[in-house]
Write a structure and sequence with these properties.
35% strand; single chain; 40% helix; 4-stranded antiparallel sheet; 3 helices; globular; alpha+beta; 4 strands; Alpha-Beta Plaits
């Protein structure tokens, strides 16, 4: 099992709208790509004092790395662009890929 994890810090002033958009629009589009079996979304509870945003982990589970590679090469660019176009400087994101052992 492969875990494709996207960690996102989203500004507090758009957090509620962003969560709805993620759950109703973005995550379903990622899952519709066919690369992933399921997803989970978590909020980081131990935020840093004076933070300007909330941090979330969005986890997507794939059967193998070739599915993730195909997603990253062919489907992710347009979905990432859509996210950037909508939330611009209101977010920071980084991605990691992990293998179940």
């Amino acid at each position: 099992m492969i875990l494709y994890n996207v960690t996102i810090n989203i500004d507090f002033d758009v957090e509620d709208e962003w969560k709805v958009w993620m759950k109703e629009i973005h995550i379903p589009k990622v899952l519709a790509s066919g690369a992933f079996l399921s997803s989970k979304m978590f909020k980081l509870l131990n935020e840093v004092p004076d933070a300007t945003g909330a941090t979330y982990s969005v986890q997507y589970f794939a059967e193998n790395m070739s599915l993730v590679d195909d997603y990253l090469a062919n489907k992710a660019p347009s979905l990432v662009k859509e996210h950037v176009d909508k939330y611009g400087t209101k977010h920071v994101a980084f991605r990691s890929i992990l293998q179940e052992v």
